[in-house]
């Protein structure tokens, strides 16, 4: 896998955006899935956010901005359609993996781990997704979410601790 | 290494579901459309002609200051023409630098009677009067027509003897 900085440099130079997008898209869609419960909605969010980001020629040295754009678009989508928001809230309590998995793989242990991730508190899960599957630094996560770097790191540690506790053999 | 390194490794083994091919096609279509719509960079946009009133005001102020300074430094036309019309009789440098007193004035704008007091070693009282004034001295150079004017504030204390009855 290419280094993340190299990928973002390619984005900055407007060259071969497809290569860049293919590197970033899985993580971006996973990030968007935290607010919308279907893969197609998440793809809609990522499409709008990425195109908006690209057209505005943002400074990609601030990597958190792309993820902040995804987050903003997702939240706007929820606000625009209250029925959708209610539907998302109802689906939030369900086990998502049984409907539409967010991770690939058939291994039982991985399925358990994915289920534990989906049960994390929202604020911990979004930090975990940005850190593990999008390789953002805590500073970039803080910028994207509008929180301090220390808060982002704390939420990340809480998430890992919660996962560890959740997966302990009973 | 921290306590969660094993958990982090396990999490990284989870691969997010790949987005659909339609997503790539839709993004490509949007970006290609925007590239077609976007005008080339060599077109001057109307927004670039916008200017702020502050910059306009600063510019006018700078121009006004420049005009004032230019007029202050401009040589006086009358006497200079006379001087330049007689090149056959050059004026000595010493005469050029000679200024003669042209006037002096002292305008008292405040006087206060501070009462009677006995100066040390004196048996007679005196009245102390303090006055404030502005003094102005003027010189004139008859050769070049230049004038010099100095003005400064001054304070004066007068002790006026009081005759006893």
Model description:
The complex is a heterodimer of chains A (170) and B (165). Chain A is an all-alpha fold and 170 residues long. Chain A has one domain. Chain A is built from nine helices and one strand. Chain A is globular, with a radius of gyration of 16 Å. Chain B has 165 residues and is an alpha+beta fold. Chain B has a domain of 64 residues. Helices cover 36% and strands 30% of the residues of chain B. Chain B contains five helices and four strands, in the order αβααααβββ. Chain B has a three-stranded antiparallel sheet with strand order 2-3-4, with no helix packed on it. In chain B, strand 2 and strand 3 form a beta hairpin. Chain B is elongated and about 115 Å long. The relative contact order of chain B is 0.09.
Can you tag this structure with a few keywords?
heterodimer; A: 170 residues; mainly alpha; 9 helices; B: 165 residues; alpha+beta; three-stranded antiparallel β-sheet; 4 strands
Average pLDDT of chain A: 79
Element order of chain A: H for helix, E for strand = HHHHHEHHHH
The unreliable regions of chain B are: 38-51
| Spatial strand sequence of the major β-sheet of chain B | 2-3-4
List the total number of helices of chain A: 9
- The average pLDDT score of chain B comes to 75
Cα Rg of chain B = 42 Å
Could you state the order of secondary-structure elements of chain B as H and E? HEHHHHEEE
Q: Largest interface, counted with CB-CB under 8 A?
A: A-B, 36 and 23 residues
The helix fraction of chain A, in percent, is: 55-70%
Q: Span from first to last CA of chain A?
A: 37 Å
Quaternary status of these chains? Answer: heterodimer
Taking the sheet with the most strands of chain B, its summary is: 3 strands, antiparallel
**What is the alpha-carbon Rg of chain A in Å?**
16 Å
Task: Give helix % range of chain B.
Answer: 25-40%
């Amino acid at each position: 896998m290419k280094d993340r900085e190299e990928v973002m440099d390619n984005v900055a130079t407007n060259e071969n955006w497809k290569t860049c997008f293919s590197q970033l898209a899985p993580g971006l869609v996973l990030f968007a899935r935290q607010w919308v419960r279907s893969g197609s909605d998440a793809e809609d969010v990522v499409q709008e956010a990425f195109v908006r980001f690209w057209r505005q020629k943002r400074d990609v040295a601030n990597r958190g901005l792309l993820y902040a754009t995804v987050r903003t678009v997702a939240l706007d989508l929820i606000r625009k359609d209250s029925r959708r928001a209610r539907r998302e809230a109802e689906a939030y309590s369900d086990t998502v993996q049984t409907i539409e998995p967010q991770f690939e793989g058939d291994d039982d242990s991985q399925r358990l781990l994915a289920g534990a991730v989906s049960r994390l508190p929202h604020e911990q899960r979004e930090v975990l997704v940005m850190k593990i599957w999008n390789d953002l630094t805590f500073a970039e996560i803080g910028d994207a979410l509008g929180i301090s770097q220390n808060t982002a790191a704390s939420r990340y540690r809480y998430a890992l601790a919660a996962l560890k506790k959740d997966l302990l053999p009973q | 290494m921290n306590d969660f390194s094993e958990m982090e490794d396990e999490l990284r083994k989870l691969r997010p579901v790949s987005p659909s091919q339609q997503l790539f096609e839709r993004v490509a279509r949007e970006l290609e459309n925007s590239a077609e719509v976007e005008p080339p960079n060599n077109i001057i946009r109307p927004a670039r002609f916008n200017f702020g009133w502050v910059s306009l005001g600063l510019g006018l102020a700078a121009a006004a200051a420049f005009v004032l300074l230019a007029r202050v430094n401009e040589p006086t036309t009358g006497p200079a023409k006379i001087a330049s019309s007689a090149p056959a009789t050059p004026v000595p440098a010493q005469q050029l630098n000679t200024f003669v007193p042209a006037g002096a004035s002292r305008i008292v704008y405040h006087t206060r009677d501070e009462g009677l007091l006995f100066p040390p070693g004196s048996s007679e009282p005196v009245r102390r009067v303090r006055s404030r004034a502005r003094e102005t001295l003027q010189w004139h150079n008859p050769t070049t027509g230049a004038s010099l004017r100095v003005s400064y504030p001054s304070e004066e204390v007068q002790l006026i003897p009081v005759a006893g009855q």
